[in-house]
Structure formats: C-alpha cells, structure tokens
Amino acid sequence: MKAGGSSRSAMAAAMAAGTIATAALTMASPAVAAEAARWAVSEFLDTLQNDGVERVVFSSDSKELLALDSDGSRHAVEILPSEVPELVRSLRAKDVPFAVQAAPSEDGNALAGLAVNLLFPLVLLSGLFILGRRGGGPMGGGGGGPMGGPMGMLQPRSKIEMEPKTGVTFDDVAGCDESKLELEEVVDFLSNPEKFTKVGAQSPRGVLLEGPPGTGKTLLARAVAGEAGVPFISTSGSEFVEMFVGVGASRIRTLFADAKKNSPCIIFIDEIDAIGRQRSGGGGFATNDEREQTLNQILTEMDGFSGNTGVIVIAATNRGDILDQALLRPGRFDRRVPVDLPDKAGRAEILKVHVRDKPLAADVDIDSIASRTIGFSGASLQNLMNEAAIVAARRGKDVITFDEIDYAIDRLTVGLQKTTTSPTQSKESRKKRQELVAFHEAGHAIMAALTPGYDAVAKVTIIPRSNGAGGFTLFTPSEDRMESGLYSLRYLKAQLAVALGGRVAEELAYGAEEVTTGASNDLQQVRNLARRMIAQWGFRATDNNSILDAPVAWEQSDGNQMIGGPQTASGSTEQQIDAEVRALVSEAYDICKATLKNNWKLMETLVAELMENETVEASALQRLVLEHTEDYVAAA
C-alpha cells in the first residue's frame, strides 16, 4: 500500500466537497481558466501516474477538467465525454479526490458567483465534518470516540505501515536458530493452512517475542511475513496512546479491520508493553482509561466475539514480566518465543551477515571477533562492523583489518582513546603516570594469567580513555560459565584476588605510603562480591561455628544489583557477616600479594613491555609467562 495513500482516501470526501467550491470560483471565470497552463490528456495521465495530481474538478458538460498539481498550479485539460469513465477509474486508483462542477444557472455568472459565495462556508464546514467523521482510524477507516466531528482534523495520525512483501527471509536472520524453529510453524500455518484445518488444528492467534534490545525481534517478525509471502502491517505500541480517551481503541479497530481485508497477513506491534501493561485492580487513581480501553480492544480483537481469522499478531517486548495476564492467556498470545543474546556460534553467524558488503582483510578471523564480543547483541555487532568500516575509511584503507575491528571493540566497550594531554604536564610526569598505570594493570593481568581456571586475558593496555580510565585489562570469560550463570567458590575467590591485583602491585612497587586512589572501583567490586558471597550465596570464609554455618540467604538480589528493603538479619548476624567478608578479602589479599612477590621478575618484564608498546596482546602475554615459568612459584 502506498505510504500516505490511506490518509488521502480518508480525506477524499471532505476534500471533494471543499474542491467544488474552490474550483467553482476558478472555472466560473473563463479568463482565469485561459490563463492557466493547459495540458494534453497524455500529460495529465503521466502526471497522475507519477502522483503529481492533488485533486480534479470536471466541468458540468464533461468536456474539460481542471487539475491541481503538487506545486499548487492549475491546469485545464480538454477531454471527450467518453473518456470520463476511464479517467474516473484512474483517479480512484490513485486515491485522488475529484468532483463535478455544478451547471450554471440561467441568471448567469453573477448569480452563480453569488451562490458560490453564500454556499462556500457551508460546504467548507460540511467538508470538515465529513473529515472528522471519517478520520478516526489510522488507515482511513471509520471513526468514533470523542474526537469525531470537526475537531477530528486535529487528531494526529498514527504511523502504521503495510508492506505487501518484506523481502526478508530466515536466511537474513542469524544467531537465533531456536527462535526461528519456533516461528517456522507459524510460517507453515500461513502458507499451508489446509494441512492443519483438515485435522482440526487452529493457527496461533499471537506470538510474543521477548528479549533484550537489539536481538533481532523486529527482523524475525519481518522474516516470518517474508517466508510466508503475506502482507506485513507494522506499528508501535506508543502509536495507540493519545491524550483523548477512545482514540487508541478506534485505531485498534481500524488496524484489525484493514488486516482482515488483507488476510492472511501479519500484524506486528513493537514495544507492546506501552499499552499492554498490567491493569490496575480498580479503585484509586492508578488507572489510565485510555491505555486500558486500548488494551481491552486488543483483547477483544484477538479473541473476542468476532475473532481474527487469518490474522496473526506478532508482538515484541523486552519487559514481558509486566504484561497483563489476559494478554498472555492461550487464544491471544499463544506462544512466547525468547530471543536471547547470541552465543559465540551465533555471533559468528551474525558477523558473517554484517560483513557481506564489507571488504575484510584475508587474515581477519570471524571466530576470534566472536570470542571478543561476549554479551553483544545483533545490533551491537552491526554497529561494531560499521565502526570498524568508518575507522578503515578514516585511515585511508581499502579493506578492514583486525586493527580497525580491535579499535572498534575497545571504543564500544571501554570508551574512546584519549589522545590529548595537559599542556602543563611535563614529559617526566607523564612517564611516571604511565609507569604507575602499567604496574596497576600488570598486577591484574599476571594475577589472572597465573590463576588456574580463571578467565583468559585478551589484552593489557595503558592507553587512557575518555571515561577517565588510565588503562584496562580485557578478559575473555568462559562461554559455558556465562551461559549457565553458575560460579564456583574457587572461581569467586580467584575473582577477588584478581581484582586486588592492581592495588597490591602499586603497594609492592612504590610502598604503602605511595598507593593511589586508582583502585577505588576495584575495592568497591571486591566489597560487593565478598558481601554477596556470604549474605546471598551462603559461602563461608572461616571454620568458626556461628549462625552462618547454615546456608541462609540474608539478602535479596536482582541480577547484580542489591535491593534495598526491610532488614532481614539481626545486629549480631550483621556483625558475623562483616567478619566473614573481612576474612574473605584478607585471604584474597594474602594470596595476591604472595603470587606477585614470587613472580616479580615477570611483573617488571610486562611493565617494560607496556611502557614501550602501550598495549600487550594475549599471545605476547602468554609468551612472557612461558619465558618466566621456571621462576614461577604458585601461592598456596
């Protein structure tokens, strides 16, 4: 369906009424018509096919028409009466409003002009009234509600688009094979309904796609329509939320009415939580009449009195937990399909899609990029490759190398490189600061490299970042550990020791009196992790008998963030929790200090490498560790 065409059809009747009066003023005067540039019939038809005609008025004798083009110019066209039916069909096909000029009265042009002057206000008001009555729906359908009448012209139009063919298939979607399997059955229902109706099976009314932002929910919905070869009507939940009560429900009615005319088809509602939130329990002032009326209309359309045969609703949200239960019951959204962040294999497949039109250097390994981008969504990976392409163009390269991709990963994860320095900072002061940062980051890196079973170190750098970081150590977590979300006590203790590596390295290199505040974030991480190990996960650091011997969770959590709330532990229990936290941190500190002391030669070598090259990659770090293996003494 042509964009904007539905709005033109909704306005056709009103514009036609207004055009009668306007054109009558023009065509009643032969002098004005003679002054306008004339068109041949062929010119008129060509302009009409190119959407260049706004409205048309036929003369009363069907020998001439007056056309208003998109630039506001009027053009007279001589026609034959026999051509009128064909011209009318062409105008209707293009949704161009047209009218017929009234025949002149016997009193002449003066009386006709007087009649026009008298009737023009009435005709204009009638046109506005018709526009208001017909402007209730987003796609030009019936109205209703409080915004009917002349004030309906003030109602904003919702952005609802219909695509006969999306041009997207499952081959264009990567990294979510499980989700595609769930949706292939929906495609089968749409493309081969007889297969299911003969055994009494009914197609699902709705499919809810749930997942974090950027995981490809919209792309999946478009792929379903493309695979099934059915029209795709898309909109957003916020398009139905208006200040005036009843507008949203009216738009829902019109949306489903148009969908049924084009069935089988798919309606896609993005961010459905904007209108599908859990309704209030009644009473009080928490209710929102407009949102609830819109939700009630969706519930009725999906599985109400009339049903929605041949129409499947696909909705997307990243807040499925707040949706109304009536929306999620069988018969409405029958299926809930999770669309999660991709794993390593999925990220590799997504990257292959996004590098189709990008020239990569021969040595670029897609699998290694996938390993470095844990936690990236499909949209993030697309942005990553686009950033790499921009950097390559900025550097004047014809192909994208791994250096550009590495630069883009660092920029997206830890911030942009800070290339400017303070003009008042001396070279000696700058070098001293770099050495301090080098010792700090080397402490993290070596502690991780010498801890069995801990995450691999991908890179160590002392290049400052725009977010204030003087450098960073990049780890590559285990894919299995990330997917399962399960962490052993051994791993958590190692994480405490690695986090303390920077602070301990500064202390060993410069003495306790010269330790800086650079480890403030590390210490906060250590405190939070140790507290959760004791108060949430039931771990212990000591063998002393206490109330903490029982594995009890004394605090609640939501992901990685602590939740404030009523105190669940007594004062004495809090004291024991604090004692256990101190014991855990002290144990990690002792292990870290002993390990770095025993491998100080490796520390100095890594610091020298950082001072010279600013960045040490994983392969270079592994080489340094192997060269100093004979001097390595593991701490107990």
Automatic annotation (TrEMBL):
Subcellular localization(s) per the UniProt record: Membrane
Cellular-component GO terms for this entry: chloroplast thylakoid membrane
- Required cofactors, per record? Zn(2+)
The record's InterPro entries line, in alphabetical order, gives:
AAA+_ATPase, AAA_lid_3, ATPase_AAA_core, ATPase_AAA_CS, FtsH, P-loop_NTPase, Peptidase_M41, Peptidase_M41-like
Name any one GO molecular function: ATP binding
One of this protein's Pfam families, by short name? Peptidase_M41
CDD domains, alphabetically?
Answer: RecA-like_FtsH (cd19501)
Could you state one GO biological process linked to this protein?
Answer: PSII associated light-harvesting complex II catabolic process
Q: Which residues cross the membrane?
A: 110-131
Q: Where is the AAA+ ATPase domain?
A: 203-343
UniProt keyword annotation of Cytoplasm present: no
Keyword terms: ATP-binding, Hydrolase, Membrane, Metal-binding, Metalloprotease, Nucleotide-binding, Protease, Signal, Transmembrane, Transmembrane helix, Zinc
Q: Where is the signal peptide?
A: 1-33
Q: Is the keyword Ribonucleoprotein in the record?
A: no
Looking up PANTHER family in the UniProt record yields:
ATP-DEPENDENT ZINC METALLOPROTEASE FTSH 1, CHLOROPLASTIC-RELATED, METALLOPROTEASE M41 FTSH
Indicate the family of this protein.
In the C-terminal section; belongs to the peptidase M41 family. Belongs to the AAA ATPase family.
Kindly provide the name given to this protein in its UniProt entry.
AAA+ ATPase domain-containing protein
